[in-house]
Amino acid sequence: MAQIYPIREAKFLVSAVKPKQFPAPDLPEIAFAGRSNVGKSTLINNLLSRRNLARTSRTPGRTQTINFFEINKEMYFVDLPGYGFARVPKAVRASWRPMVEGYLLSDRDLRAMVLIIDIRRDPQDEEHNLLAWLEQRDVPPVVIITKADKLSRGKRPVRAEVFRRELGLISPPLLFSALTGEGRAEIWECLLERSGIH
Ligand SMILES: Nc1nc2c(ncn2[C@@H]2O[C@H](COP(=O)(O)OP(=O)(O)O)[C@@H](O)[C@H]2O)c(=O)[nH]1
Ligand SMILES: [Mg+2]
Questions:
Q1: What predicted TM-score, i.e. pTM, was given to this entire model?
Q2: Which pLDDT score is estimated for 1?
Q3: Residue-level pLDDT at 62
Q4: Which residue, among 103, 94, 98, has the nearest Cα to 30 in the 3D structure?
Q5: End-to-end distance of the chain based on CA atoms, in angstroms?
Q6: Secondary structure (3-state) at 146
Q7: CA dihedral 119, 122, 124, 129 (to 10 degrees)
Q8: CA 79 to ligand 1: nearest atom
Q9: Distance (Å, whole) CA 1 – CA 31
Q10: Strand pairing partners for 116?
Q11: Which listed ligand is nearest to 35 at the C-alpha?
């Protein structure tokens, strides 16, 4: 099994709504994006071995903020607002794009964008659009299929291949389950490689 990156310190820095509030871009960073309720906060907490650092919530999409976490004084994790929620006000929904655009256009040391997809859902316009946009801006995507525990072991790689093909990825996305911890080591390995940290 791959060696797991030791988390000596993981701290929440700031909830930002505009670039002026972002921390100085003095560390490599990894951003996390995904449909609301996909399991983004759960994945971040799991990677950081913290129970509730990135809050997990049952009422998704109410807060549209960009949350920065500093890990081991070596890198930032950036929790982008979730998209695609059905039950929040239109104004909140409409703020997603300019916010994330503002983030991607700001001058960050962004090493990878993690795009999280539920294993049971097919990729939608939002995922295709985000990937196209990342390609334009030369930001490498790391696609993670989460809630892998919702499908049988045998069906998981089949689904991963469907995602690979539909999203036009070179290699199959990584599978993750917060229930079993499956995929955690591989994800860390990938993120460390992308961020240039060893
Ligand atoms: N079965 C299963 N449930 C998960 C997993 N990850 C997240 N969840 C559940 O999905 C719901 C949404 O998770 P959350 O992290 O708040 O999603 P977010 O809105 O993307 O931040 C919560 O009820 C989580 O417990 C997983 O790997 N497996
Ligand atoms: Mg969340």
A1: 0.94
A2: 45
A3: 60
A4: 103
A5: 16
A6: strand
A7: 60
A8: 21
A9: 25
A10: 34, 144
A11: 1
pLDDT at position 55:
81
User: Could you tell me the domains of the chain?
Assistant: 10-195 (3.40.50.300)
CA of 37 to the centre of ligand 1 (A): 6
d(CA 32, CA 114): 5
Q: Which DSSP symbol is given to 35?
A: B
**Residue ranges lining ligand 1, Cβ < 6 Å:** 34, 36-42, 56-57, 60, 82, 146-147, 149-150, 177-179
pLDDT one digit per residue (tens) for the chain, 198 residues? 455 789 999 999 999 989 999 999 999 999 999 998 999 999 999 999 998 888 866 555 566 889 999 999 999 999 999 888 766 777 777 778 888 889 999 999 999 999 999 999 999 998 999 999 899 989 999 999 999 999 999 999 999 999 999 999 998 899 999 999 999 999 999 999 999 987
The four Cα atoms 36, 136, 163, 86 give a dihedral, to 10 degrees, of 20
3-state secondary structure of 16: strand
Q: What are the tokens at 173?
A: 């996305």
The minimum-distance atom of ligand 1 relative to the CA of 116 is: 20
How many whole angstroms separate alpha carbon 112 and alpha carbon 146?
Answer: 18
CA 57, CA 167: separation in Å to the nearest integer? 28
**Residue found by looking up tokens 């045998």 in the block:** 154
Structure tokens at 160: 């991963």
Distance CA 181, CA 4 (A): 12
Strand partners, 22: none
